[in-house]
Specification:
single chain, about 675 residues, Myeloperoxidase, subunit C, 20 helices, about 5% strand
Length: about 675
């Protein structure tokens, strides 16, 4: 089920949930349409066979020793993962067993659909009892990955993004109405999200997910508790991610309460959707003004460019290579230790945790101090420094999910194998796409991959620069000035984030989404303020939680961190109604615009006080709806329903106006009669 309201009215499928990832380059399936790269272990690329993804991980990617970043906190890494879970979630095969005989993929080392196991090389430093690591292919878009005799063409296999591409807080609210309704507290008119246990500070945790059990365990000698329920299914993966999910659930309920106070006549539906709109805007603002500049540096931000308004011809869908390789750069920022700090930024009595002990362990939030120690550990300690010779720490390559898997997984090997499953072209093709030269020798990439030892190991593994997997090649590059990434990944991220902003009809800076006064308040939002407002009892933070600061001199009391004034959302002024500055729902107000002249259509109950101006206001609204109907090329059921609801509102408003005009006329006749009698 898609969201109730589409974003792009001309192309409703762009950026919608359960739609294909976008391709920048053609896939390179071994048989031309569906078998992944490396399916046939004897198949040669540029004269060489592909090395095992596990072998590449062990020889080049995995790092036992790591260096901490000198400037940035672990929160920068954590925001990246939280953001990623708002943009993409690949649908994996519905079956985890071979179609041929029903043998589960975890029990076979043969390439038989949907199983595509990662082969373990001889002499592996950790894995000795099996020849492979379990891996299941991603699901295919219906009809793709097959030949068509009828149409006489080949349709290459494409993969599915099951969530919306836009930065719209789908990780808080879900990407379907069914999930959203499951998260909402519909028992009252407060417009809130459901909550769970109340902790000592009086704040609430997320509700438990009792309907869809997944692996969330306690220590072996304790009874298990359910996982928490959030807008994204992956919320329980690790404690830092879970803490941010908790913070944003609380932020929704905090804003909803404030909006209810300034608009006591609003019902729960209005409060919920206007709050959701603000939350989405907050995430957009934090990402583009505070997070991305640190990741991409000045050159990368220049590639994104300044915001010039909504363009309905821009496809904001997530690119396959972005989701499958480029944005997974964040794995190179992860520390092997989860810091848990008290109010003086010292370890709590329960101590810090090796990362693998923080996977799927929500009980540690319930029983071991709440979310504050984890949040302080994120903004109070350094992230791992990304480095070509220290790519991904061994907690992720040697201990991933070892609490719930017989053989611990290898995240780097999984990333490489997923790129092959999705038939991503090799490193050379992405270099060319990003205006660099194709490399024929490993000396040709020495400007981008400056570490000679890394180049030597890559040559031993791949034989030719064009065979390097994108994930590995991207992490092997030295960072551009002022950024965290090399030129190839900087290019791919800049392209994606440019499209995500330009192609979003509901982008917070798009004229008409918020009033100028409201937009000024949105720009006051910072992640520091959100943490202050929604931690258990956090009272001081670094002003920019992505930047390291010395404690206590570099920290500010929460009372001095700027906050937004929600009184600007009071629905009371004639000016707001005339300007169309109030919007009931981020996803319920259709806008059709040409790139050069954005036009916003609104459906409001607030109307001008002057009856003659009211009539003109309604005529404008009805004409605007007609414009949408004429301009929309691809109608969906949800859009037709939405337009019908708007038209019904317009008719109701017109009836009210007609009634008011009749009353005015009666009053005027009464006044004239009185003057005549006098």
């Amino acid at each position: 089920e898609r969201k109730a309201v589409v974003n792009n009215l001309q192309h409703p499928e762009w950026g919608a949930s359960l739609t294909p990832f976008k391709r920048l380059l053609k896939p390179i399936y071994e048989n031309g349409f569906n078998t992944p790269v490396g399916w046939n272990t004897t198949h040669r690329y540029n004269g060489f066979t592909k090395p095992s993804a596990r072998r590449v991980s062990s020889r080049v990617v995995s790092a036992a020793e790591i260096t901490s970043h000198k400037d940035y906190t672990h929160m920068l890494m954590q925001w990246g993962q939280f953001l990623d879970h708002d943009m993409d979630f690949t649908v994996t095969s519905l079956s985890r067993a071979r179609f041929s005989d029903g043998v589960e993929c975890k029990h076979t080392c043969e390439n038989q659909v949907p199983c595509f196991p990662i082969q373990v090389p001889e002499g592996d430093r950790r894995i000795h009892r099996t020849q492979c690591i379990e891996f299941t292919r991603s699901s295919a878009v219906c009809g793709s990955g097959s030949t068509s005799v009828f149409f006489n063409r080949i349709m290459p296999r494409e993969q599915i993004n099951q969530i919306t591409s836009y930065i719209d807080a789908s990780n808080v609210y879900g990407s379907t109405k069914e999930i959203t309704d499951k998260l909402r507290d519909l028992n009252n008119e407060y417009g809130r999200l459901k909550v769970g246990l109340q902790v000592g500070s009086g704040r609430f945790l997320l509700p438990y997910n009792r309907d869809t059990p997944i692996d969330c365990d306690r220590d072996e000698d304790e009874s298990p508790i359910p996982c928490f329920l959030a807008g994204d299914f992956r919320a329980n993966e690790q404690l830092g991610l879970l803490s941010l999910h908790t913070v944003w659930m609380r932020e929704h309920n905090r804003i909803a309460q404030k909006l209810r106070e300034v608009n006591t006549h609003w019902n729960g539906e209005t409060v919920f959707h206007e709050t959701r709109k603000i939350i989405g805007a907050a995430m957009q603002h934090i990402t583009y003004t505070s997070w991305l500049p640190k990741v991409l540096g000045p050159k990368g931000m220049e590639m994104i460019g300044k915001y010039e308004g909504y363009n309905p011809n821009t496809d904001a869908s997530i690119v396959n290579a972005f989701a499958t390789a480029a944005f997974r750069f964040g794995h190179s920022l992860v520390q092997p230790i989860v810091k848990r700090l008290n109010s003086t930024f010292q370890p709590i009595s329960h101590g810090n945790l090796p990362l693998h002990r923080a996977f799927f362990s929500p009980y540690r939030i319930v029983d071991q101090g709440g979310i504050d120690p984890i949040l302080r550990g994120l903004f109070g300690s350094a992230m791992k420094a990304p480095s070509p010779d220290e790519m991904v720490n061994t907690e992720l390559t040697e201990h991933l999910f070892e609490m719930v898997h017989e053989i611990a997984l290898d995240l780097a090997a999984i990333n490489i194998q997923r790129g092959r499953d999705h038939a991503l072209p090799g490193y050379n093709d992405w270099r060319v796409l990003c205006n660099m030269s194709a490399a024929e020798t490993f000396d040709d990439i020495s400007s981008e991959i400056r570490n000679a030892d890394v180049r030597r190991r890559l040559e031993e593994l791949y034989g030719h620069p064009g065979n390097i997997d994108l994930f590995v090649g991207g992490l092997s590059e030295n960072a551009i000035e002022g950024g965290l990434l090399g030129p190839t990944l900087t290019c791919l991220l800049a392209r994606q984030f440019h499209r995500l902003r330009e192609g979003d009809r509901f982008w917070y800076e798009n004229p008409g989404v918020f009033s100028p006064e409201q937009l000024t308040q949105i720009k006051q939002i910072s992640l520091a303020r959100v943490i202050c407002d929604n931690g258990d009892s956090i009272d001081r933070v670094n002003q920019d939680v992505f930047l390291l600061a010395d404690y206590p001199t570099g920290y500010k009391k929460c009372s001095s961190v700027p906050s937004m004034d929600l009184r600007l959302w009071a629905e009371c002024s004639e000016g707001a109604a005339l300007a169309g500055t109030f919007s009931r729902s981020r996803r319920s107000v259709p806008t059709y615009s040409q790139p050069a002249a954005p036009q916003t259509v609104r459906a409001e109950k607030a109307i001008p006080k002057d009856p003659s101006r009211r009539h003109k206001f309604v005529e404008i609204e009805i004409d605007a709806v007609k414009t949408i109907e004429g301009a929309t090329l691809e109608q969906t059921v949800s859009l037709e329903t939405q337009v019908a609801e708007m038209q019904a509102q317009m008719r109701e408003m017109q009836a009210q106006i007609d009634n008011l005009q009749t009353q005015v006329q009666q009053l005027e006749r009464g006044r004239k009669g009185k003057r005549h009698r006098n």
